[in-house]
Structure formats: structure tokens, C-alpha cells
Amino acid sequence: MNYFPDEVLEPVFDFITSHKDRNSVSLVCKSWFKIERYSRQRVFIGNCYSTCPERLIARFPGLKSLTLKGKPHFADFNLVPHDWGGFLYPWIEALAKSRIGLEELRLKRMVVSDESLELLSKSFVNFKSLVLVSCEGFTTDGLAAIAANCRFLRELDLQENEVDDHRGHWLSCFPESCTSLVSLNFACLKGEINLGALERLVARSPNLKSLRLNRAVPFDTLEKLLMQAPQLLDLGTGSYVPDPSSEAYNRLKSAIQRCKSIRSLSGFLEVNPRCMSAIYPICANLTFLNLSYAPGLSGNELTKLIQHCRKLQRLWILDYIGDKGLGVVASTCKELQELRVFPTDPLGAGNAAVTEEGLVLISAGCPKLNSLLYFCQQMTNAALITVAKNCPNFICFRLCILDPIKPDPVTNRPLDEGFGAIVESCEGLKRLSLSGLLSDQVFLYIGMYAKQLEMLSIAFAGDSDEGMLYVLNGCKKLRKLEIRDSPFGNAALLEDVGKYETMRSLWMSSCEVTLGGCKTLAEKMPSLSVEIINESQQMEFSLDDRTVDKMYLYRTLVGHRKDAPEFVWIL
Amino acid sequence: MEGSVAYENDLHLKATELRLGLPGTDEREEHAVSNVRNNKRPLQEGGANGKSDSQNETAPPAKAQIVGWPPIRSYRKNNFQSKKNESEGPGIYVKVSMDGAPYLRKIDLKVYTGYRELLQALENMFKFTIGEYSEREGYKGSDYAPTYEDKDGDWMLVGDVPWEMFITSCKRLRIMKGSEARGLGCGV
Fold first, then answer.
1. Which helix (H) or strand (E) holds B185?
2. Which of A422, A448, A425 is nearest to A434 (CA)?
3. Confidence bin at A5 (pLDDT 50/70/90)
4. pLDDT score of A88 more than 70
5. A551 neighbourhood in chain B, CB within 8 Å
6. Which CATH superfamily is domain A41-189 in?
7. Cross-chain residue pair A298–B114, CB shorter than 8 Å
8. Option in B65, B74, B114 nearest A76 (CB)
């Protein structure tokens, strides 16, 4: 098959960057496998327990960038106990001992200890980029080690992590010689930081393009930072509570005028709504606006701001914008591709402000919409059918009705037809989250139409095993399936056990699968790891008829993991 | 609902019973939510206190908390709730009077994150509507204006200064009604 020598193929493979393509290339023949593995620099591991550090190191000696994901998705919603697993340390330990020159590490839902951060910071001379999303287990001491030891650090990006903030001087640990920062995001930290150190750091970072501050950074500092960094592309303010009559406020207004490159804006964790007009000059060029952590604005101020943002492609907001506000979005933001509307009050007693009307307006005004996350009070089939007609390009459609089994309030019927319309119309749909009252019928539609679907989230839905079977049989490209509180049992679980080898993982909690069913599955499929998370400790291992609280199974090349805590049974 | 009295006397055994019945056959029955497996219908109406919902239609239903619902990252959930639970220090309790009301109320300003929430709470408490705020004309569109007494003893219109400044300087609130209220706005 080789018409060309390796040296010719290698630079050709360099053009192939997507993980999927690279994986396909490596399967063509032995010689391509070899060339590909030596030239691979970026590796993505969607489930850290599907393989092990040793195999990674052995196969890809040229590794520079590693992405690792740990806990299952439902861990984000407190459904997985903290010490379930997903520990970073063994990976760093193994990589440090090898000759891998790691430069970039991107982690999601992993347990990251200070020790692992320290070891990371000392083991890789050229380490450049650390991105942590929804991780936990570390403190600002670990960040101090990264700051102090990574001499060529370009990126430190912390998104929505639970960090134990020791209010230390981690930011002061960046040495004077560190001038390479391109991206710094510490918005999720709760504690005070050394403002002087921050100002000096920004002043000596001419390449800084992205800066996201935490709540402890006051307005006065923000103003000084903007004066130092007019080249920013992405800004996240911390606290934005200026005194409108102050000199600092005037200075900010002129500093903003000089920041002609800002395309992405977030923050406003505390806000003086009266001073948002200072931001208007940069709105015209914004492509990403994230005000989902700014509960201090009113719907009116938010709408006024958005009216200046005609080029917006991605918008993350809170639901106090209301249906009318969404109408303003629809008439202003014609380039909108992604919309996320979060609930201001998650346990709200019916005060949530958006309904199906807002979504319909958006769909009518924003034909380019392809990604949606929408928390709302209610939804109707008619609305979903309209949305499906207006926006056939959805790749990601996640609807969350705050009352999880609410029917269509107009007809009192389940939302089967509405979601059916979505999957039928959106042929490219890859990710879907369902909510509201749903019967097996919706799964019939999903199995029939959602041919590109890769991830499906189900909660409080369906009537019988048929539902789950429609999905398993029909969705050929399914990779991740997560189900909670739905009446699916052993019959559905065991009908096609080979299917799970084609998927990354399956999660089922508060369903009707029994311990016996899980044991059977584990026996038939040794290439799967079937975990039972047994928090209540009532379950005895011999009682096969008991339904299982939480089951998580995934395919793996390396058998059962050795780091499972006591309450996790691996069958 | 005939069954409700029985529930009260009954140790709520029915409420926690695991049943194999089809879902939806006993829609109005109370169920404990977090650990029940056979029940796929979470508690919707009424509280977990055994009272049935049919007589409580005027009060907003107390939603039972389903573990992990709505599906929001705990980081985000904690972010908003911690504002409400900021019990570092006592709350800032101020009296609220409403022209024409027989008695005053007291609210804790620390519980709110901003003017929008405060005004909404006042509207709910006294059953009235405040108009739209603007710097020029105060609260247009209704007969009411929310005012407060500041540290200097002056009566100020609510909403002019930043929220943080407001809660530290507000000593008491008064919802003015009628011509007096409109006078403050200097408008129509």
C-alpha cells in the first residue's frame, strides 16, 4: 500500500489534525499506523479509564498536548460521589518519568491534587498551557507552583472549578521574567488576590489576549488593567461597580475606546447596572457575550446592551431576560449560532421568566442557530415543531423544563411530537437532552431519525424497555447515553450487549436494572467495565433482584481500574 | 381529596410505599423523592409535609428538591445560592411601610442580589406594581414609588445609587402612594 516513503507521508499527515481523522488514518495499515503514531502530537482521551498512561506513552512518544476527561457527565449535577475517581496524579507521575515533552494539558471533571500540579510544574520544561474545566481537589497552592515553575507558561485557564482558595499569593508567584502569558482566566476563584501583582503581571505580558478576572478584582483595578492591555481579544470583568461620578469611571470609558480588539466579553459578577453604557462602544464587534453570572442586571439593561451587539455569534444569559428580551435578541443578533439561557433561580417557584414563546422568537430571527441550552418554565409541541422548521441546523439541542415531567400545558399531552419534529428536521443533530413529560414514542422517533446522534441525556422519561431499545437499535453513532429516573430495566440493558463496545459509556441511575442484570452484562462483555455505585450501603452483593441505584459502564482496553473506592463495585 | 386526612394520621406510610403500579395512576399522591426507585413522578405540588395541594392553590407550590435537578453545574448553583446564604454577619433588616397598609413589614436586604429582586419581593409582599425605573422620571407607570431613608435622614428614591451603596445606607423603606409619589418623579 505504500507508494511513498515514510518521509513523504509524514508531512502529509501533519495536515491531518482532527482526532477522528487521525484515528482513521492509523487504521489503514501497519505502516500508516507507525507513521501516524510517531507524528501525533495531540491526543484526546474521552474517558481516562479507557486506557492507561503506560499505553499512551508507549504509542505516542511525540505527545505534546493531552486532553483527559474523568468523571461521568452527571457528576456535574452531584450524582457521583466526590471520591469516585478520575485522579490526575498517576498520569503526571507516569509522564514525568517518561521522555514525553508535555506542553499542554486540558482536563475535564478530574480530581487534580496540589501534588499533581506541583509535579507537573517541575517535570516539563516547555509546559505552556493548562486548562481545567469542572475539576476539583486543588488549592491556590497548586496554582502557585504552576505560576512559579512554568517558565514559558502561555495559558492558565480555570473554568468553573471548585478551588480551595487559601487567599495566598499565587499570583505573585509569577516571576518577573515571565512575560509569555497569552491567556489568564481565574474567574472561578473566590478569594482575594494581590492586585498590585496582577497589574504588574499584565503590564509585562505584551501577548496577553485573554483575561478573565474574579469577583475580588474591583473596578479600579479593572480600569488600570485595560489601560495596560488594549490588545485584549477576550475580557472577563470581575466586579463592575463603579462610582459613576468618579475619575476612574471616566478613565475606563476612554480605555474601553482603545480596546478595539475585544470580541468576547464576560463577568460582571457584581454590577452597577447604571454603568453598562460604558461598555456599549465594544459591543458592536462582540462575537461572544457571557452574562450568565451577572444576576445584578435587570432584563431591561440586558436587552439594551444586547441591542448594540449585532455581530453576536454566541450568547449566554440568565432567564430574567424574559421572552420579550429574547425577542430583542432575535431581531438584533442575526448571526447567532449558540444560545444558552440559564435559570436565575434554579429552585424557583414559578418565577422563571422564559417559556416556549422566547424560543420560537429566537428560532424565527436567528436561522443560523445550531446550538441551544434552554432552561424554561414550559414548552409546547407546537413551539418545538415551529423551532424545528425554522432551524434545521441544530447540532446540539438541550432543553430543560424546570419541572421535569411537565406536559404541553396547552394540550396536556407529552412532548413526544415536539422532540420528534426536532430530530426529524435536524439531520445533523449530534447531541440531545430531553425533558418534560415523554412516553416511549419520543424514543421511537429518536431511533428513527437521529442518525448522527452521539450523545443523549434522558431524565424521567419513557414507559418501558421499548423506549431504550428504540434508541440502542436506531442510533448507530451513539457514543454516550446517560439515563436517570426512567423505567428501563434488564431487558433493555441486555438485548444487545455488543452495542456498548461501540460506545464510550452508559450511565443509568434510579432505573430498573437489577444487580443480577448488571452481573450478567459484565460476564458477557469482558471488554467493558461495569461499575455499581452503592452509596447507601444497603445492598448486599448476593441480592441479585435488587435494583441498582447507579450504574456506569464503559469500554476499556485495560480492564478494571485499581483505584476504585469502597462504595464502587466493579463487576 | 379524600385521602389527605388519612395521610396526616397515618405516619405517611402510603407516601413512602414502593409500588409496582403504572406511573401516573396516583398522580396526586405524595412521594418522597430522593431515594424512591419505583416512582418516576417527582413531587410536584404541595410540600413534603403531607398537606394536599388542592387547597393551596393561592400559595406558590413548594417544589420538592430532586437530587441533581435542574441539571446545572454545582459551581453555578453554589454561585447564586451563596449570595443568598451569605451569613457572614447578621442580615440587614429594615422596616418597610406602605401608605395605607395597617402594619409594617421587615425585610433582610442581604437576601437580594439587586434592585430587581428587591422590587419584585416588595411587589409580592404588598400586592402592587411598581412602574418602570428611569433616571429622568423615577418610577413611571404606576401610583407607587419606593423610597428609603438614608443615613442623613433624607428620603431618597430607590434605585439611583449602586446596590452595594444602597444597602449600606438604607435605614428604612417606604412605599409612597398617590400624588406624593408622583411629585417625587417630577414628571406626569
1. helix B179-185
2. A422
3. confident
4. yes
5. none
6. Ribonuclease Inhibitor (3.80.10.10)
7. yes
8. B74
| pTM of the predicted model as reported, rounded to 2 decimal places | 0.79
The Cα–Cα gap between B130 and A540 comes to: 60
**Average pLDDT of the segment spanning A6-16:** 86
Domain positions in chain B: 93-181
Q: Please report the pLDDT score of residue B36 as a whole number.
A: 36
Does the pLDDT at position A362 exceed 50? yes
With residue A367 as reference, give the H or E element that holds it: none
Q: Domain coordinates of chain A in residue numbers?
A: 41-189
Verify whether the Cβ–Cβ distance A345 to B80 is below 8 Å: yes
Q: Is A537 on the interface with B (CB under 8 A)?
A: no
Band (pLDDT 50/70/90 cuts) for residue A56 is very high
Given B44, B67, B76, which is nearest A78 (Cβ)? B67
pLDDT digits (tens, 9 = 90+) for A233-255: 999 998 999 888 889 899 999 99
Bridge partners, residue A489, by sequence: A512
Q: Which of A529, A492, A527, A534 is nearest to A509 (CA)?
A: A534
pLDDT at B32 over 60: no
Average confidence (pLDDT) over B152-177: 87
Binned at pLDDT 50, 70 and 90, residue B37 comes out as very low
Q: Which residue of B has its CA nearest to A439?
A: B23
Tell me: cis bond preceding B70? Omega within 30 of 0 counts: yes
| B35 to A349: CB separation less than 8 angstroms, yes or no | no
With CA atoms as reference, report the closest residue to A237 among A291, A315, A159. Answer: A291
The two most distant CA atoms of chain B are separated, in Å, by 67
Q: ipTM of this model?
A: 0.87
Which residues lie below 8 Å from residue A430, measured CB to CB, with a gap of 6+? A395, A396, A452, A453, A454, A455
Whether the predicted pLDDT of A514 surpasses 90: yes
What is the rounded average pLDDT for all residues in chain B? 68
Q: Does B164 touch chain A (CB under 8 A)?
A: yes
pLDDT value of residue A346: 72
Please tell me the CATH code under which domain B93-181 is placed. 3.10.20.90
pLDDT at A224 over 70: yes
Q: Which three cell numbers stand for residue A198?
A: 496582577
- Round to whole Å and give the CA distance between A467 and A483: 11
Compute how many other C-beta atoms are within 10 angstroms of the C-beta atom of residue A187.
Answer: 23
Q: Is A299 on the interface with B (CB under 8 A)?
A: yes
- Closest CA relative to residue B157, chosen from B142, B173, B143, B141: B173
How many angstroms separate the Cα of B149 from the Cα of each of A2, A460, B94, B106?
Answer: 85, 50, 10, 14
Are the beta carbons of A349 and B61 separated by less than 8 Å? yes
Q: Which chain B residue is nearest to residue A241, measuring alpha carbons?
A: B162
A347 vs B42, B65, B71: nearest CB? B65
* Rg value, chain A, Cα: 25
DSSP string, A25-92: HHTS-HHHHHHHHHH--EEEESSGGGS-HHHHHHH-TT--EEEEE-S-GGGGGT-S-GGGS-BSHHHH
Question: At A259, which amino acid appears?
Answer: C
Q: What percent of chain A is modeled with pLDDT above 90?
A: 81
pLDDT the model gives residue B165 = 84
Considering only CB atoms, which chain B residues are within 8 Å of A344?
80
Q: Which chain B residues are Cβ-neighbours of A460 within 8 angstroms?
A: 40-42
Report yes or no: A74 at the B interface, CB cutoff 8 Å: yes
Q: What is the DSSP string of A161-172?
A: -EEE-----GGG
Q: Does A342 touch chain B (CB under 8 A)?
A: yes
